[in-house]
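Title: Request for sanity check on Ribosome biogenesis GTPase A prediction

Description:
We are preparing a figure and want to confirm that the structure record we downloaded matches what your pipeline produces today. Could someone re-run it with the sequence below and paste the raw structure tokens into this thread? We only need the token string, no images.
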Amino acid sequence: MTIQWFPGHMAKARREISEKLKFVDIIFEVVDARLPISSRNPMLDKLLQQKPRLVLINKSDLADAKQTKLWEQYFVKQGAFTLAINAHENKCVKEIISKAKEALKEKIERDRNRGLKPRAIRAIVIGIPNVGKSTLMNRLVGKKIAQTGNKPGVTKGQQWLKSGNELELLDTPGILWPRFENQEIGRKLALTGAIKDQLLHLDDIAIYGLGFFAHYYPSVVMKRYGLTTDDLALSGPDLLILVTKKLGFGEDFERGSERVIIDIRQGKLGAYTLDRAEEMSVEDGEA
């Protein structure tokens, strides 16, 4: 299965972001804490040039806390400023502004020494679909200014927004690369809802999800679906068949797949992180 999704507005946004970078001081890159590497767009490294970058590891409440700490350390080693956040919480606003000032400390000091009047920090907010950009923008600005939802691709326009007197923000549509050469990355994104379900084979995604939890969080998946240790040794398809029956859906594997995916997305199996920091390959930038 080759997962592809690249709406026309995303190609346009890529061009416009490149043009508007010269107007911003810092880049706020939003990633999903459950997949901090897989939810980054690989083309952005080239597109974003040498601007200071603050990687906001969002949805940290849904992720494995130990893994999130390791990923924060990873991004710092890569030269980025990093902050784990939950965009639904008000406290993230002060934390982000404080971290942005830290990232721009030299510039702010330089402007002050040149006698320039202090102004708001100008930031561009980027990220792939469904990492929580709109929720974050609404939180920073203090009102509902961006359409939000659990479907990828909701935010399609670009607009400058004020966050008090300290921040001016440019929101951008989610950008996803045209094709996933690494299909495991595609499956990870699909499992968290970053790709429209209509583009997927749900049984493939459910099998991937069950296999992941069986390996990394076995006690959780055993408790949720009444499985034994021996059950977890089954092949992916056989495990999905068993779980479907345990759920009372008989041989309706599509329904079983949907339930497994919903359970994972809604946190019914607890907090989890799909990208494992201990398996990170620095050379190729993949987890």
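Thanks, this matches our download. Residues 141 and 257 are 38 Å apart (CA to CA).
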